[in-house]
Amino acid sequence: MASPLALSADGSLKLVIFDCDGVLVDSEETCCRISAQEARAAGMDVPDDLAVDTFSGMALPSIQDVIEQKTGKSLGEDWAARTQARFVAAMKQGVEPIDGVYAMLEDVTKLGLSVRVGSNSSVEEMDAKFIATNLTPYFEGRIHSARDMGIPKPRPDVYLHAAKEEQVAPANCVVLEDSNTGARAAIDAGMMCVLLRKAGEEVPDWPNLVVIHHLCEFAPLLKEALKAQGRLA
């Protein structure tokens, strides 16, 4: 019999795992625009205004596969590494935090919950993003890269690895995501997923998925779960 998930009254919430891009740091559009530039250089028609719709949530090997399939051209074995270097350079030039991220993280910390990050970005990229946004103190030594593992989302491995490192069961974890790719990874890991999605945007009809529209809604959701579990007054 499956264990109750972390937001249910009979569950046990112990670990919060954050995606990075679009959840903590507003770098999704920058990285997707760079990917679109690379796609156009190879002959794939992806205007900048469709970059996020086309590449959001995708790991670089998956983006490379799409471009190569669409163009019939090989981008070369070093394409992902070269494009990642462009990402890192762009992040060092400046990146903004997602609105409300500092208050949200402080509120989650006050709840006594452990936090980790699981992202399709490399550790090198995340380090650059967190340094630029002063988020490093929240996650130092607690970030996990699906790209560096070689097993990108929508595979669940990066989330399962984060839970294993924390020594908690997947059912005791909540993942905060903004992409369908990442949400699928979290759900397939056996975790509850909270999806950050703008009001009016399409949401997949999947089990174990809760939707919020702003980061200010996240900590209260966790607090209510902890109260229902008898762990907060």
TrEMBL record:
Cofactor: Mg(2+)
Name assigned to this protein: Phosphatase
Pfam families per UniProt: HAD_2 (PF13419)
Protein species of origin: Acetobacter tropicalis
Top-rank taxon: Bacteria
The entry's keywords: Magnesium, Metal-binding
GO molecular function, one term: metal ion binding
PANTHER family: 6-PHOSPHOGLUCONATE PHOSPHATASE (PTHR46193:SF10)
Protein family membership: Belongs to the HAD-like hydrolase superfamily. CbbY/CbbZ/Gph/YieH family.
Gene3D superfamilies (UniProt xref): HAD superfamily/HAD-like (3.40.50.1000), Putative phosphatase, domain 2 (1.10.150.240)
This protein's record includes keyword Magnesium: yes
